[in-house]
Amino acid sequence: HNMASEVGEPSKWVKLISQERHVFYVDRECAMISGTIKTMLTSGFVESKDSEIQFPEIKSAVLEKVIQYMYHKVKYARGNQSPPEFQIEPEMALYLLMAANYLDC
């Protein structure tokens, strides 16, 4: 039983669900990199109550890569040096571009 949710504190984790219904648990701080997710979690949408967001238009492999990017961005955001390049497979580039555009990240 999670004490935080009983006192109205949002969960530390956000549940993102892909087109194939795979569930990804993402640290809330990382998920908030996405403007779209941040809006959904902070604007009284139904998603903000249960910290669960479904993306029926984003395939699991693409959503997983976007999540890796979110963690990459948070990990290197506090550093002074420029982060290492985030590796993207060429065959996934277009899907990632569309997902990142939709997710605003």
Topology of this structure?
Layout: H1 3-6, E1 13-17, E2 23-27, H2 28-31, H3 35-42, H4 46-50, E3 52-54, H5 60-77, H6 93-103
Parallel strand pairs: 1-3
Antiparallel strand pairs: 1-2
Helix pairs in contact: 5-6
The chain-level mean pLDDT equals 88
Main pleated sheet: 3 strands, mixed
Order of secondary-structure elements: HEEHHHEHH
In order across it, which strands form the biggest sheet? Answer: 2-1-3
Notes on the structure:
This protein has 105 residues and is an alpha+beta fold. It is built from six helices and three strands, in the order αββαααβαα. It has helices spanning 3-6, 28-31, 35-42, 46-50, 60-77, 93-103, and strands at 13-17, 23-27, 52-54. It has a three-stranded mixed sheet. Strand 1 (13-17) and strand 2 (23-27) form a beta hairpin. Helix 5 (60-77) packs across helix 6.
